[in-house]
From TrEMBL:
Transmembrane parts of this sequence: none
Protein's cellular compartments: Periplasm
Listed InterPro entries: Peptide/Ni-bd (IPR030678), SBP_5 (IPR039424), SBP_5_dom (IPR000914)
Sequence similarity: Belongs to the bacterial solute-binding protein 5 family.
Pfam family, one: SBP_bac_5
Residues of the signal peptide: 1-20
Protein name: Extracellular solute-binding protein family 5
UniProt record, GO biological process: peptide transport
Keywords of this entry: Plasmid, Signal
Superkingdom per UniProt: Bacteria
């Protein structure tokens, strides 16, 4: 776990520091069993970064591996990071020396080397103007040189000392790809025939239908507990439920909250709910696009926050399985950054909301809310309640439920749904507060951008990124959060919760939103 003491020790001067945690789990004997999982969808490509999405990232872990990985068995909140394909990290100022694990084979039989690791993080792949997967630039912010020194050693140089590099490499940006095969296939073809170093190899992938994984018998770690994993696309919940109740499937995903009790009542079926590292939210379009957008007035955005009784909504829809974070970025998974008694600047107060609306020039025009259909469980139901509560204070919001994000991103709109992930640096608020909102982030640059970072926000972000002690980083975090709240470009709704059904005989521990079918996460009776 990254504590304040460890955090400070990571930052000490120019002396070298070893980051040598390792993932060690009891070995599980491989057998010949087949495990079948019913999922709602499979993303169209498994390219590690380009294809990063909920339906792909949850299964990456079975065939891809990274420099480091989050150990959810040590802490279900995901604050513990251990080495995976890296054996050790040593930092000298702004340069990290990384020793890679020896004898690790890709699924095509080629050995993974530092050359592959360096290519994975290279300008050519992430940061060049014509990069293969430019989305990877956000995962390697500040990297200025990545170079293989010998067969198993590489150096990573950053613009300024960055003690978070090992943790950052636990993200999808740290998934190590085989350089030669990747270049031979190209991003699109690689995403259809992916190769990694994980305990399973992909043998079949048809995105609208099925993915088949088979145990990789040359895997460097513990043998996979099953010889064949099948991920079947079953879009309708009723069909998935029927399949798991009948025993056709061993595991299923995507259970509506109000269906959990019924599903759990069937013999041989167990329901598991776990918190994800992501928060459902609604983004306010703060920009003058459309030109008459009344949400450019921050007072109207404040009013929209104060008009919604989100605690009541979350309790009604989820019971005690999750919560509403009243103060943005004050999330309990952030350990010492978390202040449980912190009070919101914009508490639920309909009278205050009405007073704020009266101060604006808002004339009651409809505010269009783009929502992706079935985006997250209960989102549309919550939105209907919110629309009613906004109406009570004189704010007219019109929901438009659309089939996909491409449609949601089409202007004009005043609000849109999104989920803000929180796990890029485990135990640290870097991702939700800076990575996803900074001047280079999609929310600031894409065609569908919804805000322009303020000067105060950018200045606080610079202090946050260059902090050399926990105390400095915590102070900068507070300033950065305050600058974001001054604008209030979004309303956080609740921490995402995932529910799974598992048949008797299958002992499985979810790893946040990931479905790890190996190691200490899965065993079969």
């Amino acid at each position: 776990m990254i504590t304040r003491r460890i955090f400070n020790s990571l930052l000490l001067g120019a002396s070298t520091l070893a980051y040598t945690g390792v993932l060690a789990r009891p070995a599980a004997a491989q057998n010949t069993q087949l495990l079948k999982v019913a999922v709602d969808s499979l993303w169209q490509t498994m390219s590690p970064v380009t294809g990063f999405a909920t339906s792909s990232a949850r299964i990456y872990c079975n065939f891809y591996e990274r420099f480091t990985v989050v150990d959810y068995l040590a802490d279900p909140n995901g604050s513990v990071v251990v080495n995976q394909l890296a054996e050790s990290f040593e930092r000298d100022g702004a340069v990290w020396t990384v020793k890679m694990r020896e004898g690790v084979l890709f699924h095509n039989g080629e050995e993974m080397t530092a050359e592959d690791a360096a290519f994975t993080l290279s300008d050519e792949r992430y940061r060049a103007d014509d990069a293969y997967e430019p989305r990877g630039a956000t995962f390697t912010e500040g990297f200025i040189r990545v170079e293989a020194i010998d067969r198993y050693t590489l150096e990573i140089e950053t613009q300024s000392p960055d003690i978070h590099v090992p943790a950052k490499l636990s993200s999808v940006g740290g998934i190590i790809v085989p350089k030669a095969y990747y270049l031979e296939k190209g991003v699109d073809a690689f995403g259809q025939e992916p190769i990694g170093t994980g305990p399973y190899r992909v043998t079949t992938f048809r995105s609208g239908e099925i993915m088949v994984l088979e145990a990789f018998d040359q895997y460097w770690g513990d043998a996979a507990p099953v010889s064949r994993l099948e991920w079947h696309v079953v879009p309708e919940f009723a069909a998935r439920m029927a399949g798991v109740v009948s025993g056709e499937y061993h595991v299923m995903v995507g259970i509506p909250t109000d269906q959990e009790a019924q599903l759990a009542s069937y013999d041989g079926v167990n329901v598991i709910s776990v918190p994800f590292s992501s928060y459902a939210a609604v983004a306010f379009n703060t920009l003058p696009d459309p030109v008459d957008n009344p949400l450019v007035d921050a007072r109207l955005r404040y009013a929209m926050v104060q008009a919604v009784d989100m605690d009541l909504i979350v309790q009604a829809l989820f019971g005690d399985t999750t919560f509403h974070p009243a103060v943005p970025f004050n999330f309990p998974e952030y350990g010492e950054f978390y202040e449980p008694d912190l009070q919101s600047n914009l508490p639920y107060d309909p009278d205050a909301a009405r007073a704020l609306v009266a101060q604006t020039d808002y004339d009651g025009q409809p505010l269009i809310w783009h929502i992706t259909r079935s985006f997250y469980p209960n989102y549309e139901t919550a939105a209907e309640i919110m629309v009613a509560q906004w109406a009570e204070v004189g704010i007219n919001v019109e929901m438009r439920v659309l089939d996909n994000f491409s449609m949601v991103y089409q202007r004009p709109f005043h609000l849109m749904n999104f989920g803000n992930a929180t796990s890029f640096i485990p135990g640290d608020p870097y991702q939700p507060l800076w990575m996803d909102w900074n001047p280079e982030a999609n929310r600031s640059r894409a065609d569908w951008k919804t805000w322009a970072p303020s000067a105060d926000y950018i200045a606080a972000g610079a202090r946050f990124n260059s902090a050399l002690t926990f105390e400095e980083r915590f102070t900068a975090f507070k300033d950065l959060s305050a600058a974001w709240q001054e604008v209030t470009p979004a309303l956080f709704m609740w921490r995402q919760v995932g529910s799974f059904a598992v048949r008797d005989g299958v002992t499985w521990h979810p790893a946040g939103s990931e479905m790890r079918m190996f190691g200490g996460y899965l065993s079969l009776a």
